[in-house]
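Predict structure. Chain length: 87.
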Amino acid sequence: MNTSSSTPTSSPVTLESIIRQKEAVKKELEEQKIVLAALGKKVTAPFAPNPATKTNGVMRAFNTGMVTFQGIMIAIRVIRRFRKFFR
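Prediction complete.
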């Protein structure tokens, strides 16, 4: 029975080899963190382009205001229906 690690190496495991392996894994993890951060930014970025002109900015603000207003109106209707249901 072999109780050593699963790698089939014939050289003994030394403190230096463990340190080198640990540094390699840390470096790989840092690279993966950078890639994941870039992917996260790409996924969460807004789909609309940045407002390059003044009209795009105004239209975006208007659309945001309309969506907010519609959300509030829907919430009011839902609250009224719940109140009618529980009376």
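Summary: The mean pLDDT is 83.
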